[in-house]
């Protein structure tokens, strides 16, 4: 697939501004050639003492051409840049629309700093595609052809020299630049991504690096990455400068060639001497339009490399066809059905889930327990359509999740994950993340239910909740979920950092609110599970036991042994 197809589509959508910019550029190019040609002709005419009206006409023409060139150049810049910024807006929207459904799998494939570099830097690089890649050849062809036709009326041989110069600047110089560019293809962008990755990780891990005495070493790595990037940027800039220098050399060689050939034609009587200055000035001006051709290969390689990285980023792996689907009703509790579900992470040798089958009735309370790595959290990700099963089917209210829109599932679910994100802002702003409206009284009431009565709605929360304890983060995440109106509750270790008394107080309010809703609780703790209608015990991606608390204790199987070990641990801790 052509990696620049989305760019071409965006250009078609902005065709009006693009056509206007091409028209403005053509008029500005022709006006520039005509302006300097008229200036040269005016200078030559003054030698022969022409009538005053001739000088007045030529002078007026020069002024009018100057105004026309300035106005058309302004129009060209206006419409070309407006088209470019509109295309960038479309590209960002399209990219994020494809990126969002791929989370969190994409975060497992890409380091966060590299992903940030792609989102910002690579998308930004594509602004050069129209201005530096697609646009210059059009201008060169249009302006050169018009100029060559004009010059051929005075001398075929000089027009032929113009054609040779055009071929040299349009093909030879860019070809030489391209040969060198391929040697440093993508290095600047890769080094920029590397630097972004290192900076991000140092910022996120600054405290741990400082505590463990590794900060100086990581700073040295940052400086090395920065120096490498600067060196690659210097090489790339030098390469572009050589291309521009070669273009200037060809331009002056052609101009000197026009001067020498014109002088020869004048001596042989094939050309009137009054036109020589005009032809030389035309040659100096027309090649300005071809100056962008010298750097075109560099920008083309850069745009293609950026487009390739963006395409790789949003290439689905564990997410299947993301076609639009139906909506999940918010008016009733949700039933869940997992039929032979298997899921394997990319690159893993064993499945995270293997042939899991479960039926959860609407309005029931189900706990999923088991050791770490048994696949409990993966079930929630599959239910939320954040990942797609490798095999099997998942149905919500007897509808396959593949036939449901992700948004409708997320709206129906009140979710608390192990790691909840908090944004820099107030407590109120972090509670009101959805479009539902809540009064301050409702917000304060839910804070009291989660045992945060001392928190004010105007208290600041740092990025990622850095000024909150783990227990406060969990309680704030529970408060955020309790403000939603969904009928499906998916709670992944929501109270693992809370003490027993606080946990029981919060769960009491939670059970009261979810009395008619479907609740799935993932927990390592086995205390308090007597309230559950059903307990699902998992180990190594398989369901090993199911039943109520009393049933599992009577069976004296896996759950019984887990409970026995927990009681021993609690007893030892108490001693």
Automatic annotation (TrEMBL):
Pfam families cross-referenced by the UniProt entry: ABC_membrane, ABC_tran
UniProt record, GO biological process: cell redox homeostasis; glutathione transmembrane transport
Asked if Transmembrane is a keyword of the record, the answer is: yes
Lineage top rank: taxon? Bacteria
Q: Which CDD domains match?
A: ABC_6TM_CydC, ABCC_MRP_Like
Protein name per the record: ABC transporter ATP-binding protein
Query: Which GO cellular component term is one of those annotated?
Result: plasma membrane
């Amino acid at each position: 697939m052509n990696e620049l197809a989305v760019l071409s589509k965006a250009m078609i959508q902005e065709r009006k501004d693009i056509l206007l910019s091409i028209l403005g550029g053509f008029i500005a190019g022709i006006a520039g050639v005509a302006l300097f040609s008229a200036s040269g002709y005016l200078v030559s005419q003054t030698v022969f003492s022409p009538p005053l009206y001739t000088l007045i006409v030529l002078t007026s023409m020069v002024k009018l051409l100057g105004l026309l060139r300035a106005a058309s150049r302004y129009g060209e810049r206006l419409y070309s840049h407006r088209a470019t910024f509109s295309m960038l807006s479309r590209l960002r929207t399209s990219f994020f629309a494809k990126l969002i459904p791929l989370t969190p799998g994409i975060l497992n494939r890409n380091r966060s700093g590299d992903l940030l570099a792609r989102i910002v830097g690579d998308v930004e690089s594509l602004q050069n595609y129209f201005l530096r890649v697609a646009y210059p050849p059009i201008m060169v062809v249009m302006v050169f052809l018009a100029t060559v036709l004009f010059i051929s009326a005075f001398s075929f041989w000089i027009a032929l020299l113009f054609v040779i110069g055009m071929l040299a600047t349009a093909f030879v110089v860019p070809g030489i630049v391209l040969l060198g560019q391929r040697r440093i293809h993508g290095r600047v962008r890769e080094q920029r991504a590397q630097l972004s990755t290192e900076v991000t990780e140092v910022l996120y891990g600054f405290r741990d690096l400082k505590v463990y005495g590794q900060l100086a070493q990581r700073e040295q790595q940052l400086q090395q990455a920065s120096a490498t990037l600067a060196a690659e940027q210097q090489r790339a800039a030098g390469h572009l400068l050589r291309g521009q220098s070669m273009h200037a050399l060809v331009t002056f060689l052609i101009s000197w060639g026009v001067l020498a050939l014109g002088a020869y034609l004048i001596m042989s009587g094939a050309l009137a001497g009054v036109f020589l200055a005009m032809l030389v000035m035309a040659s100096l001006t027309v090649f300005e339009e071809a100056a962008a051709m010298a750097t075109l290969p560099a920008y083309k390689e850069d745009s293609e490399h950026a487009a390739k990285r963006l395409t790789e980023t949003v290439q689905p792996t564990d997410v299947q066809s993301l076609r639009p689907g139906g909506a999940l009703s918010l008016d009733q509790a949700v039933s869940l059905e997992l039929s032979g579900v298997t899921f394997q992470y990319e690159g893993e040798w064993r499945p995270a889930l293997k042939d899991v089958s479960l039926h959860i009735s609407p309005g029931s309370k189900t706990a999923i327990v088991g050791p770490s790595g048994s696949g409990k959290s993966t079930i929630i990700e599959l239910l939320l359509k954040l990942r797609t099963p490798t095999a099997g089917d998942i149905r919500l209210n007897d509808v396959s999740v593949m036939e449901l829109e992700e948004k409708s599932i997320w709206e129906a679910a009140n979710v608390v994950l192990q790691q909840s994100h908090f944004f820099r802002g107030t407590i109120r702003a972090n509670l009101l993340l959805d479009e539902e409206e809540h009064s301050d009284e409702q917000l304060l009431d839910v804070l009291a239910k989660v045992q945060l009565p001392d928190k004010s709605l105007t208290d600041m929360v740092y990025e990622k909740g850095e000024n909150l304890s783990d227990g406060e983060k969990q309680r704030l995440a529970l408060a955020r979920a309790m403000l939603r109106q969904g009928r499906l509750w998916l709670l992944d270790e929501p109270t693992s950092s809370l003490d027993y008394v606080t946990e029981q107080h919060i769960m009491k309010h939670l059970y009261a609110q979810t009395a008619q809703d479907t609740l799935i609780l993932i927990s390592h703790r086995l205390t308090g599970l007597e309230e559950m209608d059903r307990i699902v015990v998992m180990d190594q991606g398989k369901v090993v036991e199911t039943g109520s608390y009393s049933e599992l204790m009577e069976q004296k199987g896996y759950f019984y042994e887990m409970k026995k070990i927990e009681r021993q641990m609690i007893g030892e801790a108490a001693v």
